[in-house]
Design goal:
With 119 residues, this protein is mainly alpha-helical. It has 5 helices and 2 strands, in the order H-E-H-H-E-H-H. Helix 2 packs across helix 3.
Length: 119
């Protein structure tokens, strides 16, 4: 994926996070820039967790562990990004809504994308 593709991906992720902020109670995003930075932080934290523990603990593993890991990443990200407030219930609901949206707008794992290029 080229640079423009990454920019579009993060802009779409920020818009999704803003929509989730309107839908999910106890999940608040301060504005577009907070949502964009939140998308970046969630991507980096998810990439680190996937690199350390493998695919089975990420949403790409499609299990309950991946779901709970996504909720934990969303909850932890609020301490890094200003203008974001998330409760544990809000993080669980946000992970659910983002997972449902991901069914319609699939995004591949950075490791999967790298393997496709290497083949």
């Amino acid at each position: 994926m080229n640079f423009l593709g990454h920019v579009v991906r993060f802009v779409v992720a920020a818009i999704v996070l803003m929509i989730v902020g309107f839908i999910v109670p106890q999940f608040q995003v301060g504005g577009f820039w907070s949502a964009l930075f939140l998308a970046l932080v969630i991507a980096v934290l998810g990439w680190i967790i996937e690199g350390i523990f493998g695919k089975k603990v990420t949403p790409f593993g499609r299990g309950i562990v991946g779901f709970l890991t996504s909720a934990a990443v969303i909850w932890i990200a609020q301490f890094i990004v200003s203008g974001v407030r998330v409760s544990i219930l809000g993080a669980l609901l946000a992970a659910l809504v983002i997972g449902i949206i991901d069914l319609f707008i699939p995004i591949s794992s950075p490791f999967t994308a790298g393997k496709k290029r290497a083949d």
